[in-house]
Amino acid sequence: MEQIPLPAMSLYSSLPHNISQSLTNFSGSLFISNKTRDCGDGYNNIPANEMVSSLPLQMALYFNVFFFPFWWLSEVAMLELKQYSMLPGYYQWLLFAAVIILTLIECVRLSLGYTGNLQEKLPELAGLWLLSFTIQLPIILFLLTDKSIIILPLEQAVHILYFTFLVFELVAAFQALRKMTNQLATRFYLQQFQESECSQRRNRSQETGIPYGRNSISNV
User: Fold this and answer.
1) What is the pLDDT of residue 178?
2) Which residues of 48-68 are buried (b: 16+ CB within 10 A; e: fewer)?
């Protein structure tokens, strides 16, 4: 059993090294098989210089940037409306905390998505996927399904649109992560092959006495 190391990917990330390395390892373990034979067979048909940025993901992120302020204003207005007449105190604080967390994480998430997708940085793209799946999606599902918070029609409409954005971005980011990880694994295999080939040429040059890199035909 062998897992493909992808240490160089974290060097090109703007995130702190520990976080970048953890996200890189997460992506490698999720999208790369542990079986060496499967890995080698699966990546031979992926060009090492192919662009792996996802156009559908970028379009979703672009429209999400314009939609989120409208969602935020709608949610704040509905929260203000319900705060004084409809909800008990603990639900008011719960909704307030949910909106604050979702707003802060959304700013980070969209920034990571733009950087990771356009610049093909694996740690940032993995960060987008993890934040969407572990924080944003549960919060928006809570806001969309918990009847105790008295979901108003405007809230329901914007929550459904936001949920649609999140699901689409999760799927598109998953596909982009898989392509990006596989391409980087292909580059790793090519680099290993080139290093092995250079090592074999050096060994042959030492055995034959012909200097490495010199064409043997020119010596005839």
Assistant:
1) 86
2) eeeebebeebbebbeebeebb
